Each structure stands twice: as C-alpha cells, then as structure tokens.
Amino acid sequence: MKIAVYGKGGIGKSTISANLSAAIAHKGLKILQIGCDPKHDSTRLLLGENIPVTVLDYVKNTLPGNRRLEDIVFRGYQGIACVEAGGPEPGVGCAGRGIITMFELLSELGLDSHQFDITLYDVLGDVVCGGFAVPVREEYADAVIIVTSGEYMSLYAANNILLGIQNFTNEKGRVAGIIFNERGLDDELERVTRFAQAVSLPILAHIPRSARFATAEQDGKPILELFPDSPEAAIIRTLADHIIKIQPGAASLLHIGSPLSDQDRDTLVMERKPSGSIESYGPSVSQTTTRSALSPSVKNKRPLIGCAFAGAVVIANQISGAATVMHAPVSCSLLIGEKIIGTGLRTSQVCKTPYQISASESLFSTNLADNEFIHGGEIRLADTIEEAISRGYTWIFVVTSCVPGLNGDRTRYIAGQLHKKHPGTRIIPILVDGNITGDFSQGMIQAYREILQQVVPGELSSTERSVTLVAERIFAPNEERHIKVIEKLLNQLVVTINCRIFSQCPITSISQAGRSSLFLPTDSNDFTDSIRPLIESAYHRPFLKYPLPIGRQETEIWLQEVGSFFGREESVKIMIQDARKEYELNISQIRDRMAGKTLLITTQKRSIDWILDLAMDLGMIVLKVGILYSPFNDTFHSRYEDQISFSHGYDVQKRSEDIRSLHPDLVLYTYPSLSSQDYAKSDLIPYSPGFGFFAGIQWAKRLSRIIRLPVTEGWKYDGMEMV
Amino acid sequence: MIDDADGFLGALLAIEGITDARAVINGPNGCRGYPAYLSDRLYPREYSLSRRYFEELFFFGQSRIPCTYLDADDYITGSTEKLQKILPLIAEKGDTLIALINSPGASLIGDDLNRFIRQAGMDHKCLAFEDAWYSEPVSVGNDETVLALLKWLRLHPLPKVKKRVNLLGLSLYQRYWEGNAEELVHLCELMGLHVISRWTGSTVAEIRESTAASHNLVIFPEFASKTAVWYEQKYGIPAVLSPGGAPIGFDATEQWIQSVATALKVDPAPALDHIHCQKECAFHIIGRVSHEASFIKGLSFGIRAPVSWALPLVTWLYTYLNMFPVSVQLFPGGDPIQRQQLTDLLMILQETSILGVDPKTVQPDFFFSEGIFGKHLLAEGTCKSYLDLSNRMYTEIDFTRKTLLGGSGALFLLEYIFRETYNSQYLE
Hints:
The structure holds two protein chains of two kinds.
Chain A: E1 2-7, H1 13-26, E2 31-36, H2 44-47, H3 55-61, E3 74-75, E4 81-84, H4 95-108, E5 118-124, E6 143-148, H5 152-168, E7 175-181, H6 188-198, E8 203-207, H7 211-219, H8 223-226, H9 231-245, H10 262-269, H11 296-299, H12 308-317, E9 319-320, E10 323-327, H13 330-351, H14 357-361, E11 363-365, H15 370-375, H16 378-390, E12 395-400, H17 402-407, H18 411-421, E13 426-430, H19 440-452, E14 464-470, H20 479-492, E15 496-501, E16 505-506, H21 509-512, E17 516-521, H22 526-539, H23 552-565, H24 569-594, E18 598-604, H25 609-617, E19 621-628, E20 646-650, H26 652-662, E21 666-669, E22 682-684, H27 697-706
Parallel strand pairs in A: 1-5, 1-6, 2-4, 2-5, 6-7, 7-8, 9-16, 10-11, 10-12, 12-13, 14-15, 14-17, 18-19, 18-21, 19-20, 21-22
Antiparallel strand pairs in A: 3-4
Helix pairs in contact in A: 1-9, 12-13, 12-19, 16-18, 19-22, 23-24, 24-27
Chain B: H1 7-16, E1 21-26, H2 29-42, H3 72-77, H4 80-91, E2 97-102, H5 113-119, E3 126-129, H6 138-153, E4 161-168, H7 177-190, E5 194-197, H8 204-208, E6 213-218, H9 225-235, E7 239-240, H10 249-264, H11 269-293, E8 300-305, H12 307-320, E9 324-330, H13 336-348, H14 359-362, E10 366-369, H15 373-380, E11 385-388, H16 406-423
Parallel strand pairs in B: 1-2, 2-3, 4-5, 4-6, 6-7, 8-9, 8-10, 10-11
Helix pairs in contact in B: 1-6, 4-5, 6-9, 7-16, 10-11, 10-12, 10-16, 11-16, 12-13
C-alpha cells in the first residue's frame, strides 16, 4: 500500500507523516517513508536528526556503477526505513526533476515497495510542476491524503492538489481524505468543513493546535515516543488505524474528490463575494516597450521550426576571434555544431576556399547531464567559460538551451562573476533558452540584438567608400563564391566591402562596420526586416532598400541605386551597357527553346522576381505563381503583382489540380517537390542562385535542357509499388 | 569541439533500428530534425516522393520521428493537448511498436507520458522514456533503451534451440550497419547458425523470438553489455564475446569465428575457409601493387573509438600492414579484458603513452573515428585521410552495400587504405 501525503509547505505534513509512520510501525507493520521535499526534513523525527545523505546529493557525488541502496536508506524509529529526496540549492536547478530522478534510482537499485506494508510519500504540496506530481501517478501512490489548515493559501494548495490528482486519475477514487491541522483561526473548523463538503471528501482527523507537537519537534522525536498517552497521540493512532484499513481500490475509503473553480473556492469556502469592479489600468502602462523583434512563427504562435538556441549559436559562431559557449546537453550542441562544421567543410569544398578551422575550434559545450538538470549547471558553465578563457579567447558568447532556461541557472550572474575575475574578457550571454524564446529565426534575431549591443559608438565617426553586407545565407555553401561577384561590381564603382555582419566577421569589425557609408541587405525577407531596426539603431547608417541583386534587371536597378549613392552614375551606365550585350547573347541562345512555353511557379514566401524577369526575357508565359506557407516569412512582394496571377494560400493539392488543368510545360518549385501523380516537367528553384547580371543564366540553360527531357526519370517508376 | 554523439541519439536510433517500430519525441521540433534526417537516410522505409510539407503537424516535412513541437507555453503548462493529439495519429501509421521519448527540456516538465499512452488505449504497443541518457555516451543510450524495451516486451521464455543465436550491439549509428549485419549473418550461416534477432533491421516479432536463442553473440559490448547480462540472468542465454574485439580485420574475424564456434560447438572450418579465400584475394592484390604501395608500411594512424573497435583495428593494421598507431583515444566503457589487451599491445610497441593522445599533436596519416571530428582534422591538415566509423555524415552517399566487419570489411578497409595512399600525397 502506497500513500502520498500532500499539503502546502509548512503546514505540518512532515510532522504528521512521521507521527503517522511511527503509529503504524507500532502496530507491527513495516514502513518506508520517503520525503519528497527539497528541505529533506520529513524523516527527522524518525531518525532523531537530519538524514546523513539525500538521494540527490548521493546521485551528484557517486558514480552510477558505485551506487547502492544501503547508502541512501536509513533505519529510523521502530525500524522505519527512511529516504529523503533532497534537492538542489535554493534558487537553482529543478527540484521537480530531482523527484523524478529519485524514483528512477530507487527503482533501478531495486527498492521494492512490496517489501513494506505501507510506503508513505511526504510531498511538497504546492504542486507547481510535473516533478512534484510524480508520487501521485498511478504507478506510485495508491492513495492520497491532503493536510490543510483553514488558511486561505493552505486551502488553495489543497484544491490545487485535487486538480493535479484529477489530471492523473480516470474516474477512480484515489483520495483518502483531509487531515485538518488546526492553526487556531476564527471559524477555522467551519471553513475546512465547508471545503471538505464542497470537494466531497471526509475529514480523517482534526489535529488541534498543541504545544506537545512543538516540544516533540524540538526534541526530534515522534509524539508517540515523547507523549504516548496524550490526546494528540490518540488522534494519530486512530488515524493510523484508518490508514491501515485502506486498500487500493477500496471504494468506501477512497474518493474521487471534486476540485473547485477559483470562484467557487472563494465564495463557498472563504465566503468572499466578487466585487466585479476591477478596472483596467489603461494604455498608459505600455507607453515604453522593449519588446524584441519577433519571427513570424513566434509572432503568430505557429509551430516552431528549429530552435532559437541553434539560430543564436550559428550567428555567434560567425564572429571570428570569439568563443561560443553552448550551455546545453550534448545532443543540442552536437546538432548545431555538426551542422556548422559540415557547412564549413562543404563551403571550403565547393568554393575552393580555405577551411575555417576557427569556426569549430571556437565552439565549447557545457554538456549538461542529469546532475546539472537537477542541481543546475552553473559550475559546469563557469568551468567551460574558464576553459575558453584559458585558450586565449577574450570575447565569449554564452548561448543557453532550454535546460538552463528551465532550471533557472543564473547565466548572466556567472558571466558577470567571471568578467570580474578576468577583467580583460567580455562575456556576452545570449539567453534564448532553447526554443523557449522561439524558433531558429528568433534565435538569430536575439543573437544580432546582443552582438550589436557591443558596438562602440565612438568608432563610428569616419565614413569611407565602403559598404557592409547584412544577413547572408549562412547555410548556402556557394554563397562565398557569389559574394565575390558583388565585390567585383562594387570595386568597379570604387567601393569596397568593409564588413559582413555577421558572416565570418572578425570581432574587431563589429564596431568598424559603422565606418561603412551604406549597408546592403543580402536578402529581402522577414528576418532581414526584423534585424534592420537593430542595425540602424546601432550604426545610424542608411540601408539600401534593395537586396543583393539576382539577374539582369535587379542588378541594373541595384547598381543605379548604389552608383547614385556613391556618385558613380556614369560608371554604372557603362557597366549596364556592357553587361546587356553579354546577357542578350546568352539569353538568345536559349530563347528559341523557351519562348512561348508555359510556366507554373510554386514557391514559399520569398522573392522570385528574378525568375519572373528571366521568364520574361526568355519569352515564357507565366500561368500562375502559387504562394505556399513558409514558417520563415509572412510577407511576399513582387514587382509583377499587377501583371501575373498570384495565388496566395496555395498548397500542394492546388498545385496538383493546376498541373492537371493548366498543363504547364514546366513547373518550378521550392520544397516540397512534385508528387508521383503530378505529371509535369519540373525543377527546384535554387536556394542560392548567385548575384549579378548573369545569375540565373546557367539555371536557364539547365531549364532549356529539362524541357526536352522525359517528364519523369526512370528510377521513379521503381518506387511505384510503395505508394 | 569534439562532438561525440550522446545517449539521446543512441536511444532514438535504437528504436528506429527496429523495422516496424517508431520513435516519437515529446519535445521541440529542433530536437528531432537531425535524428529524423539520419533515421530516414540510414533506414529508408517511407515512400520518399510523397514528401510532407511544413504545415503537417507533428511531422513538419520529415517522415520519421514525429514530435510534439513543444513551445514556451508547453514548458509552463505541460504538453497535454499535443500528447493527446499525436498518439492516435501515430497509431494510424500501423507500427507494431512506438516509443515516446522526452527531449532534454521535456524531461524537466514532468508530463506523465504513461497516462497519455493509457488514455489513448495504446499501452499494448507504446512505451515511454521520460529521460533518455542525455549527455551519456551514445552506446549507453543504445544499451539502456534496448534493455528497457526488452523488459517492456515481457518476452516469453521459449525453449532453447541449438544453433540459434542473436546478434547484440548493432546499431543504426554504426557505419554500414546493414552490410555489417549481413556479413555477420553470412558468417553465422557458414557455421550452420541461424540468427534470430539482430535488433537493428529486425522486426518486433523476431525480437520476441530472441529468447529461443542458445547464445547471444555480443559484437560491440559497449552497445549491449547490460542487455547481454539481462538475457543471461533472466533467460539463461549466455553471451559470447570474442577476446579480440569485434570482427574487424582478418585476424579479429578469425578469432571471432573461433570464439563463436567453440561456444556453440559448431565447425568453424567453412567460415574460416571463406576468410582464407578473402585473404588470398587480398594477398594477390597487395602483392601486385606493393611495388607502388609498399610505402603503406610505416604509415601512422590514429583512432578514436570504443575499445571493441580500437583493439582489432589497431592490432590488425599493426600486424598485417605494419602501420604504426600514434594516437588511440578510447570511449568510456567496454570490455575490460579488451581494454587490457590493447594496453598490452601498446606496451609491446613501447607506446603506452599514445593512449589518449590528441591526434592534433601527432598528426597521423590515417584517422579512424566517429562523426565529423575526423573530417575536421582532415580539412585542417592534421591527418591525411579519414574514415568515419559512424553514420553521422550529411555528405556520404552509398549505393553499393559495404561493411566494416568480417572478411568483406577487411577487404573494404584495404581498398580504402591502398586507394587513399596511392592517390594522395604520402609519397612526399
């Protein structure tokens, strides 16, 4: 028989539990009492002093292979077996997680509750999280007893416990009843009686306020030992007799209990009447806001794709010369670390550029394991930052995963302490807390915000004929090669790239980026829009309204804007003239094959004007552009909105229907690809097609070949039987 | 950053390795992207041309390891609603077994996963892992998950059938897992043995039959030591462990065959003859290219692996090709006898100091390891060639069935070493 005793902290449940165990043991039954409260004093009256070691301290200090049951189970009054969960230091770690770990360890070490007639769990009753609810789960406690006084907060906690039990039980009686531990308030008995009636539970015992309990408490002994003939001892014995009769599923002694709504609790039990006169404070409270820019998924509470931790690590890792400490379990660090290193390797392979060793060597991980989940990972964090400092890093970003976010690690405090110890260092926490802050994009936004706060305004004084590139596609391995095209165009205008924020950006460049006279966004999307105000406020420099250009038309517009800004209009005219000739030569080689062909484009929300430009130059007919949902972008704009049919809220079913009804000669798509039922020639729109006049030409040549190929590749027929 | 995989990945891949089982993560989408990708790439089961798209709840464009996509609200209030929705939906997929596994963050919430499983009426086919060996070695995650699942299955003790065995310690995580299993099954068949269950690539029904085995052949003890002990204690199935480690290279393979044959009292000759043929084949090729490739002798190598991999590979490369170990880093755990044997070998070389040496400090010609770490060394020029012993790369595409184990695995290793040597800069 397993019984959980719940009640608000400080209500006396440990005293009652210990005395109850003592009384049951006197009847000759074998008892196991497990304290499930971080303050670990449930068994103090049975042991005469605090337990020598709690389970969670033991787990922390003992290797898994060396753990033994006899190290954590102690013999108390009348042979009662005593165990205390313990918990982390106040303010850190996750005590609820600790309770879960204790139960797992006791099970692993073979503590069989069947060896005992009664197992009694003494549980902190402020059921604040799932961990503290573990004892009430069906595989643990057969019955629950609630200890309460007539105080409002105690009854509030009692009602919460019933709500918790309701969550874990399917119409099965689990609650034995209420123990009323009197505090000596006016009308206290009436109030508790009203509560008990309202929640349909019996009051099992009324324990009066008594100095004998205080004396026994002070002496560290059960009241049965110190005052065996007292009325209080008699009440405890009667209660013990009742408990012994309880058996799992004993219908008459176990009750379902009906928790009250907040309003019923206040009106029925506390006899409070709602005034209904609470007014809003009005808009004046929200005049100043520090609300961060939000990614589309966070803003609209959509399912989060990816994790802010990963997004923040990716951006922080772009700052060369700085270390990134991932305050996370191995699995989180592995996931993003491997992606970063993999992309670096691929970039070096594709672009024939030197491999950036620093990107992986500057990554550190705290590798949080179960101990840190419970007790907090501050020590591990401090050690890992120290390791980064010992390797010579003076700039250190600390990115938090959900584990420190949940167990309350004081990351900012640790960073501050280490900064004091190492005054030359700058330790910058990026507290994204895994995906608690949001998705991958949100993590990137947060990282930009934190990094940009490091910009030193004094270094912004001089301006040059240079630009800063903003928000490159980090996971595009060919982006590096494409940036060279932009660099060449700029050089023709006698303009240089001063900085790329943040792409392989040296730590020293963060402030120096402000010397650029113009900032050039790489892409046009919601993410760039989100970080733009952050960048503008950090550097106070103008942003070009156009992203880096793809194809002839975009490049002409972009060059005219940049040329005008730097006073090089004449150079731009010559560049455009020269490029047009070469472009026309290239396009004319393909146009004959493509002219008049019909095109269906299905894309997630991203700029595709370069494709439409290309299609127009090739003389193709665009039947429709279907705009699919994107977790990364809410907005979609096109220069062609008045000329072409755009279908918003598009999906793959509509695409299949359009393929059947419109018979396009070619379908261009972003993810997902066409299904086996979609009979059409098709190609994937490249993620990073390149920049400049001739970006897209190679792809157009490929399309001119695809249009002459069979609709389906032969291998696809081999999978038909799997459909 | 050395990125050794952890127990969470080990647990997920242990489940995903069973042909008709599915892992489901109670956790954020970000936690499942990489393992879901790996599972789908390593063990293709779904029709790949019906690609899902981002809106599809729980799957979000990936066919394996759906998740409850926890967000900030769920960390506070629990993920009741999502758990109630996902389980019936997954049940429709027809898997024989489902494992619901908490992500690291979800393990701190304390949702009672079993309650939701019961409520969905799925307790006969779904089990819960409320924590999953976060930051423990990948092998521990595999072993513990396999053990928990076997216990949950409540296997019936079946009458032992002679010459029937199980293979223990194989995982999707290991490079060429399918070829590895096939190679071992083939060697067993040559000895007249029938493999009942190999876990990875086996069905739940085959795993249920595993108690009919007379012996368990433990290939990689790091991945199966607890499981092997449990089988022995609970069902009286003894474990066979080759003292030479896993069957990697000709010598350890022959030793493995001998160990198995002795334990099961079967004739090793057919299997040994098969290896002998493969050795002859290797001899003829090495003999003919040795004038060009004799410089293999004396080349250095490093390894970062469990001892059951490291012992046979170090021994074989040293004795068979006369390559020289300069860095040996062992993962925690494994068979202590194998560990001692490896130390003894390095003593003979008067090179015990190479145990634990950072490969960056000694710059081996060849490096054998798990994950992207070796590729990183290769890219920075610390080693000249790198072979991944695990299955974690995004870039490797294999069409032909390969193996690292047995005689065929030895031939693969020779082909790799000779080609790399011949085509690269070792002549300098």
